[in-house]
Amino acid sequence: MGLPEDQPNLLRPGHSACAGCGLAIGMKLVLQAMGPKTIAVIVPSCEGAIGGVYPNTSYGVPTFHSAFEIAAPTAAGIANALKILGKEEIQVVAFAGDGGTFDIGLQSLSGVAKNNDDILYVCLDNEAYMNTGIQVSSATPSFAWTGTTPRGNPGRKKNIMEIMAAHYNPYSATATIGFPQDLQHKIVKAKGIRGTKFIHLLVPCPTGWRTPPDLSPELSILSVETNIFPLYEVEEGRKYTINHEPRALPVQEYLLRQGRFKHLTKEQIQQIQMEVDEEWEKLKNRARKSFGRRKRGVS
Amino acid sequence: MREFITGNEAVAHAVKLCRTPLIAAYPITPQTGIYEKLSEWEASGELKGMMMRTESEHSAMASCISASLTGVRTFTATSSQGLALMHEMLHFAAGCRVPVVMANVNRLLAAPWGFWADQLDSLSQRDTGWIQFYCENGQEALDTVIQSYRIAEQVYLPAMVCLEAFFVSHFMEPVDIPEQEEVDLFLPPFSLPHKFDIERPGFFVPVVPSELYRKYKQMAQASMDSVKEVSLRVDQEFKKMFGRGYGIIEPIMLEDAEVVIVTACSITSTARITIKRLREGGKKVGLLKIRLFRPFPVEAIQNTLKGKRKIAVIDRNLSLGGGGIFCQELRAGMVHSSDHPLIYSYIAGVGGTDVTPEVIEKIAFDATRRNEPSDPPIWVMEE
After folding, report:
1. Per-residue pLDDT tens for B32-70?
2. Which pLDDT does position B57 carry in this prediction?
């Protein structure tokens, strides 16, 4: 097998995502790295919209549009049935949004991770319920505008990676579309591991973030370079590896490019910066303490 | 082989005999015995299958649906709150046309809390598109699970086998356990025409336009209707092979009956004895057992009750603001009968209270005495 980027595109053109949709780019990159011997599970979200209306579909692998809160157990049912049938060369990937992962699907994801069922779970995080028209979720950052937080989100984004790490699952990683090779390498790595693998994939949403469609890859890169969304891996809940040394740009470089943050006060920006710095220190400490820490070069 | 076992164990035997390779379940009283027995056999290697210990009933059903679409036979068991939590996925299973088989141990729904027999849990799932059987005892539960796989895998609809909490689930009775070779002959290997195939990638459960949704429901209704005929045929074949048959309904001493008592589940066993006693006392009372509830066997019931004047339906369930659910269905089914029988709704046994021969006698006497139509449910209590 060659590099993932040479593999066929399994999210076919002509799908119905908005212009500049980070989620569609993310799904395309993931499916390309998974390859055709894959069964995908999607749930009601923009993934369903991208799938198209019968009789058309953009998905190039068998795809099951399951119910909202059960991406993980749906995928686990397929994976276990494949095991029974002796078809373990076929892998199962579950896609769910941040609402379907951080909120309504958290319990069922936890159950599957506890059982360590053999699936790759990809959380396509665009930081709000975008498919229903921009409502706050547990993945919405502090102070962000959404349709249900018109004065800004009073809550703080859940740390889903730590929740997953607490399950001691074999592999979890963050990724974002601005670092496509890093993402595809992580998918290929996850394919080689049996058990519940989790990818927290940040996908900018021009519609919900109130940004121009051509800014998605740049914002994705800025989320990493400001330490807001560090790229790292957690293995067995204990081995932390940071995959990219960020430039540690001030957070406003990322925030103020987006309409959803345009109302932010100086104090609010300061608070975000403080929280980001604190989280980054915590992560660095964890990575330092992890034995056998290796740094992998990424583009 | 004859064994002295509980209803729960009888169900577990059936699942093993059907060589069900994927079981997904979550504990809830009084179903847990099924889950534990199958886990025990999984550990000992007697069960050639895999147990998925999900974090909820909702996820158990999700896994059964997707595993079924991958190409394996599946099973789950639940009860009461667990079935209620599964509600969303019950619709989904029927919509996906997957032949999942589930045992539901009928237990009352909270609030207030209780563990006792009451059929409201499964009856309030009547519109989810599942085939529903109501079983009288452990033997019937075992046999019905085996039959359900045959039926469900022929019509591509899921099937629910209901047995009552404690009266059946925990009551020990001698049960005939069929030979594996015979079950293998009776139940062909699992095969679905629609399943995930990497050679032919398809999109399962797309968004469809209104007209297509309607067409899909029409097709499902035709399949559901065929269950009445398919169930009868499967039951006859089962009887040929194993010597036991149940029909979809069972008429008992109906020929000259002036009052027909209608029952489901374990109340039927008590009623069998009661009507014998009443007959000995010169009362012309008959009994009709309803075993298949979805689809409701309207034609069979109409034919069986032809010429009957008084029908007394006993319900161990209550739809608030409606009445007994078996009675509602029966009244609706008899509305075009030229005999216009008087159909009375008796609520007995709700919350798992005992329906003794005396309670059934009271119902028979009450129905004999009445000569006017009466719509509201009539509550009958033990002395």
Report:
1. 999 999 999 999 999 999 999 999 999 999 999 999 999
2. 98
Q: Which domains does chain A have, with CATH numbers?
A: 4-289 (3.40.50.970)
Model confidence pLDDT, tens digit, residues B177-217: 999 999 999 999 999 999 999 999 999 999 999 999 999 99
Contact B154, B174 (CB under 8 A): no
Enumerate the residues of chain B whose CB falls inside 8 A of the CB of residue A36.
198, 201
> Chain A: nearest CA to B75, how far in angstroms?
12
Does residue B52 sit at the A interface (CB-CB below 8 Å)? yes
Ramachandran region, residue B149 (left: φ > 0; alpha: ψ -120 to 50; beta: rest) = alpha
Q: Which of B301, B293, B334, B297 is nearest to B317 (CA)?
A: B293
What are the residues whose beta carbons fall under 8 Å from the beta carbon of B167, sequence distance 6 or more? B117, B265, B266
Q: What percent of chain A has pLDDT over 70?
A: 96
Residue B330 amino acid letter: L
Whether residue B332 lies within 8 A of chain A, CB to CB, comes out as no
pTM recorded for the entire structure: 0.96
pLDDT tens digits for range B313-337: 999 999 999 999 999 999 999 999 9
Length, in residues, of chain B:
383
Closest approach of B195 to chain A, Cα-based (Å): 9
Domain positions in chain B are 2-242, 249-379
Fold of B249-379: Rossmann fold (3.40.50)
Whether A81 and B64 lie within 8 Å, measured CB to CB = no
Backbone angles phi and psi of A169, in degrees to 5: -70, 155
A96 interfaces chain B, CB cutoff of 8 Å: no
A195-228 pLDDT per residue, tens:
999 999 999 999 999 999 999 999 999 999 999 9
Q: Which of B87, B72, B183, B165 is nearest to B130 (CA)?
A: B87
Provide φ and ψ at A213, rounded to 5°: -60, -25
Max intra-chain CA distance, chain B = 70
Instruction: Provide the number of CB pairs (under 8 Å) joining chain A to chain B.
Output: 145
Task: List beta partners, residue A59.
Answer: A11
Question: Do the Cβ atoms of B205 and A64 come within 8 Å?
Answer: yes
| A218: DSSP letter | H
Identify from B100, B200, B205 which residue to disrupt to test chain A contact, counting A C-beta atoms within 10 A and taking the largest count.
B205
Q: Which two tokens stand for residue A8?
A: 């066929």
Give me the pLDDT at residue A298, please. 44
Considering only residues A127 and B340, tell me which one the structure prediction assigns the higher pLDDT: A127
pLDDT tens column, A234-274: 999 999 999 999 999 999 999 999 999 999 999 999 999 99
> Do the domains B249-379 and B2-242 match in fold?
yes
Question: Is the CB of A12 inside 8 Å of chain B's CB atoms?
Answer: no
Count the Cβ atoms, other than its own, within 10 Å of residue B158.
28
Nearest by Cα to B250 from B284, B225, B287, B202: B287
For residue B11, give both structure tokens.
Answer: 């169900």
Record: fold of B2-242: Rossmann fold (3.40.50)
* Percentage above 90 pLDDT, chain B: 98
User: Measuring CA to CA, which residue among B290, B289, B284, B306 is closest to residue B365?
Assistant: B284
